[in-house]
Amino acid sequence: MVRPPLPPFTRGSAIEKVRLAEDGWNGRDPAKVALAYTVDTRWRNRVEFVTSRDEAQAFLTRKWNKELDYRLIKELWAFTGARIAVRYAYEYRDDSGHWFRAYGNENWEFADDGLMSHRHASINEHPIRKEDRQFRWPLGRRPDDHPGLSAFGF
Asked: Has this prediction a pTM greater than 0.85?
């Protein structure tokens, strides 16, 4: 399987790769999202360590079963060769109706076929009031005319 855009990345192809990742995660389909990763992908996500595509899919299933009404914005931070660094924010509510906003940074490395082989994430979150939410588009892909992350000053 080949997943364009492929490394080595240009600024344009890195931005495209970041948006494709954002779109996938906003779709919240663990099986589909997991296909963007190599079968032996390696992740560090907070204190969890994922070591395969199957584990990534299980992780995403748990995540989106807990993080309801999930909406994410990613932004390119830096890139070189087969690596991309992003910063992001996402909002979600838990099953008790409490809202949260999480902020994070990720470092990605890609195989030649464009699948992500490594994902290192650092994330912090805090509770927010429902009325303080900023990401209010309908569930799914962020509309093209919706502000990006920098517009919020996060």
From this structure: yes
